[in-house]
């Protein structure tokens, strides 16, 4: 499908070429505007945290795991189960990309 880049009130947008401009809602983006937008997008992607960084920040504290381990050894597996579920939730929220 052919697309074109347009300038709207909120910024650049890629739309199908067949889209019609309703009541002057947008105009075709200039090459300069496209270049600025692409540079900003590259900068944003470069600064965005990786999935590994996101996981590291979201995992439960290691002290919670240590407490859960002690409780599990004492016969109370509930805290360890909760800890492992919290870790699994982090992995679901920040999946490792398929390469």
Could you walk me through the main structural features you see in this protein, from its secondary elements to its overall organization?
The structure is a single chain. With 99 residues, the protein is an alpha+beta fold. The chain has 2 domains: 3-47, no CATH class; 51-93. The chain contains 4 helices and 3 strands; from the N terminus they run βββαααα. The chain has a 3-stranded antiparallel β-sheet with strand order 2-1-3, with helices on one face. A hairpin with a 2-residue loop joins strand 1 and strand 2 (11-16). Helix 3 runs antiparallel to helix 4 (78-93). The longest helix has 17 residues, at 31-47. The model has no long low-confidence stretch (mean pLDDT 84).
Offer a quick outline of the entry.
Helix content is 54%, strand content 14%. It has 99 residues and is of the alpha+beta class.
